[in-house]
Design a protein that fits this description.
This protein is about 40% helix and about 20% strand. The protein has four helices and five strands. The protein has helices at about 10-15, 30-40, 50-60, 75-80, and strands spanning about 5, 20-25, 45, 65-70, 90.
C-alpha cells in the first residue's frame, strides 16, 4: 500500500532551525513518531487524527507537514491553492 506524505515548507523550516509540526494519518503515525524520536536536529511534534485532519491543518497553517495514507482530493488541492500554498505530495512507502 502506498502512503503519501504531503510536505509544504519542510525544507525551509528545517534549514531555518524551527521546530516542525506533523499531523495526520494514524496509519503513518508510528513511522513518523519513530523518525521524530531519532531526529536530533530540532524539535519535531507528531500527532495523528486522520489524513483529512492533517490536510485541513496544513491548509489552515496549524501544521508544517500533513501525513496522509491517501492522495489529496481535488477539493483539498484547490483549498491549498486558494490559501496561496502549493502542495507537494511525496510517497514514502
Amino acid at each position: 500500500m502506498k502512503r503519501t506524505l504531503v510536505v509544504l515548507f519542510a525544507a525551509m523550516l528545517s534549514m531555518a532551525g524551527y521546530g516542525q509540526k506533523i499531523k495526520g494519518s494514524d496509519t503513518v503515525l508510528p513511522l513518523s513518531q519513530k523518525e521524530a524520536e531519532a531526529y536530533k536536529g530540532g524539535s519535531v511534534s507528531v500527532t495523528g487524527g486522520g489524513s483529512g485532519v492533517g490536510i485541513s491543518a496544513l491548509i489552515e497553517g496549524s501544521c508544517d507537514i500533513a501525513q496522509s495514507s491517501r492522495k489529496m482530493k481535488f477539493t483539498e488541492k484547490k483549498k491549498m491553492e486558494s490559501a496561496g500554498k502549493q502542495p507537494k505530495e511525496v510517497v514514502i512507502a
